Amino acid sequence: MALVLFEQAIRHVARIARVIRLPRGHCLVVGVGGSGRQSLTRLATSLTDYELRTVTVTKGYGVNEWREDLQKLFRRAGCDNKPVVFLFSDALLGGASELTMLEDLNNILNSGVVPNVFPPDKYEEVLQAVTPDAISAGQATSPAAVYAFFTERCRANVHVVLCMSPIGDGFRNRLRQFPSLINCCTVDVFEEWSRQALTAVGSRLLQDTAIEPAAARPSV
Predict the structure, then answer these.
(1) How far is Cα 158 from Cα 51, in angstroms, rounded to an integer?
(2) Average pLDDT over the chain, rounded to whole?
(3) CA-CA distances (angstroms) from residue 73 to 30, 93, 108, 157?
(4) First-to-last CA distance in the chain?
(5) In what order do the strands lie in the sheet with 158-164?
(6) Most CB within 10 Å of its CB: which of 33, 56, 124, 190?
(7) Higher confidence at residue 96 or residue 150?
(8) At residue 45, what are phi and psi to the nearest 5 degrees?
(9) What confidence tens digit (pLDDT) does each residue in 15-35 have?
(10) Is the dihedral of CA 88, 89, 90, 94 positive or negative?
């Protein structure tokens, strides 16, 4: 991933990295598309040595596929006990599954997991995978106690980063309908890049480009 870093971008990377390293830290990144929200989130995740998970929406992607992706996320965080950053962009919204996605994200931010996300057979698999660690931690071995242990692991290890655009009524309506999207997140606002930042990007992109006459390069 080729990035041109300048002071504003570095500040955003540091801010996102600081938030996701906090216990149960989640971040709402607000800015227009193309401003570097996802790229800088990926860089911050790499700096913290966390695993990055995201969703790739293809034709036919619906609620079932969304829940399967969540199951993989929770198993990685709860069964494998690995810290994971879940990167989600509002560009994925707008279809028939939008309300389900937002409700599930609201639940993850609020309680750590999504109720009834695992069907009975996979629920049993989760219990079997987590029971040895639960016993080692001194937890009771009842299904409810083991799953509560699993849920706490998910709450500790899953860090959500939401990338949303403030343009239009959709942003305001989503926050009003699902308050955890803002109440449980630290907000990082991507404002317009400064002239210095844009000049740095342009200079980096043109550094290998021949410009004639050479004296015209500074003005370009």
Answers:
(1) 10
(2) 87
(3) 24, 19, 11, 10
(4) 25
(5) 51-54, 84-89, 158-164, 27-30, 186-189
(6) 190
(7) 150
(8) -65, -40
(9) 999 999 998 999 999 988 777
(10) negative
